[in-house]
Amino acid sequence: MFKLSEIKDLIKLVDQTSVQELEIESEGTRLLIRKPGKTESVIVSPAPVQQAYPAYVPQPQQQPAAASPSPSAAVPSAGQAAEADAGLHKIVSPMVGTFYESPSPGAAPFVSVGDKVNEKTVVCIVEAMKLMNEIEAEVKGTIVEVLVENGQLVEYGQPLFLVRPE
User: Coil, helix or strand for 134?
Assistant: First the structure.
């Protein structure tokens, strides 16, 4: 069971950050703090949560339709795209927060497509609750794709980069 003082502290933390929703389960009790606009709502229920963080499901990006596709242009099928991504390593966000590609506004990005990285190379920052968390590549290889935009909110487990391992 959550103590009132703990709930008040959590509300203050959520209010001071860009986090819009916080959900915690402890000893079979679920706590949900949601910030719609400037007000908080608190829900405490004994119902267990089946999954603390929803699985990130990437949405297919819409490609603009070509006016007249040339007969020689090969359009990869979904199977071919999956084959091409099969050997790639995904660097995922270890937390909910805001993605930053560089150490400060106006600075060059930590990494770009084509850059070589190793296990300890910092690839981005994810800001959560006013803390800047440096995210490392975890693998030696080459950055193939950056999957998120600078300043974008990211979810726990959301892929941030694709890396071709060496």
Answer: strand
Q: Token match 């910092």: residue?
A: 122
- The CA-to-CA distance between both ends of the chain, in Å, stands at 48
CATH 2.40.50.100 positions along the chain are: 87-165
Closest-CA residue to 98 (of 76, 69, 131):
131
What is the tens place of the pLDDT at every residue in 80-134? 455 556 789 999 999 999 999 999 988 999 999 999 999 999 999 999 988 999 9
Yes or no: domain 87-165 corresponds to CATH 2.20.28.160: no
* pTM assigned to the model: 0.51
165 burial via Cβ count (<10 Å: 0-12, 13-18, 19+): exposed
CA atoms within 13 A on the CB side of 136: 7
pLDDT score of 87: 85
Question: How many whole angstroms separate alpha carbon 53 and alpha carbon 51?
Answer: 6
